[in-house]
């Protein structure tokens, strides 16, 4: 199995675990765990396949992906209480999943269209949509709205992979450095609290209109 | 018209009615009723068709589905005040719609792929997504986050239909018992207050991190 | 370039600008601006293409659309503070974007299916989904739930374009009057505060159940 296939399964499995952890934070029942694991694990890749015109989508062609997500949901249901901080575990698993998923997304976008721009966009979308869907369904504040470096990590990972590929770097190496680049940025942001300068409001005449 | 076709129209019409009832609870105008009726009635089936690669989706091929949803939205606009408890009506219509929709979704998944796993997943997704979309757009707490048996009913209905089909039970009979199984479970959960054991938090060292 | 192409780019660019303005109201960083610009600018058209079976979707076939949205997101990042009321600017840009997008959506629906009903539905969906997605991701109350004339404007614009087309009016003229009709209604609603009669609750016996 190639490194890309490993990244594919790793990204899906890790996002599925974050979905199940979100379900544990909401104290759902077993079926709720499975639902969140499936939607979070497969959501980003589903949108990627659809916009690229690769339908039926990947998990319809290979139902193993669904079974993997369900198995992970069940394992988390029975083991999540062993973890000291489920939230910290969730964000770190999410960081590794993001790194794997952004490279896979870029690779599929590149294979389908040959366009580096599309590869970067599908990589970024793929890696961030699973978490966005999870937060939306769990009714938690989306990571999009926190002043954190999240989408940027996916964007850089996808761009590094795509750029390395354009320069003729072998696929397994390009995948590896793309995933590492994404993880270095997201992990650094989590560990050191890195942020970008955010938009600063200079109040106009009606500041009450600016929420 | 076959029993499956009846279930198809029934599921769509009932979900459209629940969408319009949600619009009535938000005191929207007539167009808001039509929008919620269309999105709730057609949402689940739209996602089902897209992931299966059956595009253009069903209501693009047959616009009658849109007109049915609009007609129901209009009827609800003028009659919802006659109902004593619109919320109770909504959840019971939703229960019947769920039962019809999960069998239809499984039947379409089976027809498109031949895979029982996919049939069960598309049946479950189809039946639950309309209500999830309705709650998301109406900014109400999603049924996903309530400790209720909801997705499970769709899952069982889809599985019973798919299993019966595998064992050679005729289509109309498999459809009927699948829908009845789903309704028995969802109806029982509503009437008797059945729930599953939910995940119970055993606090770790930082309980404030666990929301 | 035809009037339809102008409307296409105009609708996308204006919605991208409203997405970036929403990001400014949430005080996101530059990447957050780009993400909101891309999702709001391209979201409605993406759903339109998918349900019509036109995949890969338009921006995969022509990545310029993505670059336009990113450029607009960057411009807004550096200039939004110059605007006195960013919220007022957002809703007026949204009104013009809505007018352009509903005609484009109807034109694409008509070209793909030949059905006036589908044309009106895709026009309405296309024009309203970008804003709905933006509000959902930004965790702001959706325009759907406000007693405002919004979807109606998109519906009328799409219907006027489609009707004019059916009566043999040349394409550029039909596009123009469709867009003007939509803008007249949405602009009037914003300027004069027009609303439709909303659903009025006549309380039943359990008013506490009716939220």
UniProtKB/TrEMBL annotation, chains A, B, C:
Chief location: membrane
Keyword Lyase: no
Subcellular location: Cell membrane
Pfam families named in the record: Gly_transporter
Keyword terms of this UniProt record: Cell membrane, Membrane, Transmembrane, Transmembrane helix
InterPro entries named in the record: Gly_transporter
Domain of life: Bacteria
Domain Glycine transporter span(s) in chain numbering: 6-80, 92-162
Chain ranges passing through the membrane: 6-24, 31-53, 65-83, 90-111, 117-137, 149-165, 171-192
Membrane topology: Multi-pass membrane protein
PANTHER family: INNER MEMBRANE PROTEIN, UPF0126 INNER MEMBRANE PROTEIN YADS-RELATED
Entry's family note: Belongs to the UPF0126 family.
UniProt name for this protein: Membrane protein YeiH
Taxonomic classification: Bacteria, Pseudomonadati, Pseudomonadota, Alphaproteobacteria, Hyphomicrobiales
